[in-house]
Each structure stands twice: as structure tokens, then as C-alpha cells.
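Table 4 source record.
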Amino acid sequence: MRQRRKALILQPIKWVLLLGVVGSGSVYGLTKAGFIEWNSDHQLSSLMFWKSDTQASTKGVALAAGADPTAKVSSKPTPSAASSTAPTSTPASTPAASTPPSATPPATPPATTPSGAVQLISQAQSIVPVNANEKAWLELAGEIKLDPGKLFSYQAWLNEVSKGKAPEKKNDDLSHVASLLYEAALRAGMGIGERYAHQDNPAYAPAGFDVDFQPDKKDLTFYNSLGVPVTVGVIYNGETPVVTLNGKPKGDWKAPKITVSKEVFAPENMIVTDFTLVGQGDVKRSDGLPGLLVKVFNDEKNDGKNQLIYKDFYAPHPIIIAKAPTGEEVKSP
């Protein structure tokens, strides 16, 4: 009876041992074959599937990212940001060279010019394009330097540059360049000496800023009263030139505000008798030209107090109408 009971007790143990041996061999064979992998870092708690596991599988993420499948991945939990006792500073990443530029426009530089820097003092833009001869004169004008406390003479400058190879001296071309220099000097607040206006406002200059320069007869002069050297520059907006004055004025210097008022005078009719029109009607010989009174004001301190500095008057041209003579006029000797 005892032996039978002993056999009944040992029989389950034999089956357990047999299954253990077979199982171990199977696991060993599958491991060698590469079908399963044993991670020695796994603790017993990882096999307890009934417990909630908050740590995600890092190996699956690594493989999905293309990492080396043979690399050893630690299964130890990484402390979260909330459990950190002190924040750590992360250096800003440097953008790659292929990163597209930001859509945000760059910041606009300050309007103020740093102290001591060369800056634009004033400018005068032509209202018409220039020809090749005028461009040549403007190129020479772009080399002019105005010394402080000195009087500039357009005639003297012309004499100096004419010692070398100079463009053709056409009065209109020289007057156009002189007009641009004059307006730039006036807007810079320089003192004006000689300046002659045309009888009729030319097409190349705005009314009130034209200069009628005639070599050895009518000059243009102005005085550099800014106390600093000033250089002339010439830039182009298409074919239209812009004459600039540039320098390093004092920190509290401001260019005066130059304003212009215009008063137009309509032309009158002028009737003349034309004996070639016997037996015919009246004929208009000229459309005339309106007159213009220009007043130029200077607000030197930019305080709204305008001061009249000069007037230019361009007289109107009458409308000329020719009429046929009457019978009495024909008979009169």
C-alpha cells in the first residue's frame, strides 16, 4: 500500500521533470535558431501580465526607427521631466544650411544715422531723362567736393574740368546739371550767391529751381555753410538722374523744409492784322503759354515758420490770333 501511494506521488514529479527537460531543450533550440531572444535584464515583474506596465517597449521604437537590431537596448525606465529635481538647459540647435529662410521680413533699420557716419544730406531729382552729353557732365559733377566755409562757383569748376577732356559745352545741358546742383544745395540749407532763372521755365527743371547758366556771363554760386566737407553724388532712377549731397553733419543738424507755392496766370488774346488773309477768316497763330509766379519758402528750424526767400516769375505768352484786314484797312495807304 505504501509503495503504491509512493508511486502515485512520484509519478507527477516525473512528468514535471520530463516536461522541464523537454521545455528547456525546446527553448534552447529555438534560441539557437534565432526565433526567440532572452533578455537577462527582464525581471520577474515583467512577466506578470496582470500588472499595469507604464513603460513602453523601447526596442520596438528603435527597430521602427531603423536602429541596429543587434544593439542592446536598456529596458530601465527613464526618469520623466516631472521627476527631475532641477531643470537642465538645452542649447539651441543650429539650423541646417538647407533650411528655407523665414517668411518674416527682416527688421527695418532705424531711421536715425549713427553719429559720425556719412549720410544723405539732400537730393534733387531731374523730372526728365538725360542725354549722353548730360550724363558725361553729371559723371564729372559726381566728383565735386565742397569744402566747409568755401564758395563754390560753377564757372570755376567748369574751367577746371575743361583743362582735360570734357564733354561738349551745350548751354541747355550745362544749365540742367547746374539746376540739379542748385536745388540740392538749397535743400541742404546752403547759402546761395548767384543764380539766374530762365524767362520761361524749361522742361528739364521744376519751376523755381531752374538755373540759366551761360558760360562767362551768368554763373551759379553757393556757400557751404554746414561746417563739414560735403561730396556730390549722382545716382539714377532708370534714365533719370538724382544728384545727392553727402556728409557728416553735426548730431543736432536738420535739413530745412523747402516748400513752393505757385500762382498761374492765364494768357491773354492778342489780335493782329494779317494782310495775307484778305477775304479769309481769323487764324490762331499761337496757343500762348500760361504765366507762373513761384514763391519759395524756407522753414529753417522745422518749426512751421516759413520764410519767403525768393520769387520767380515766368511771364505768360499771349494767344496770337491773326485776322483778315477790313475793307478800309485795305484801302488805306
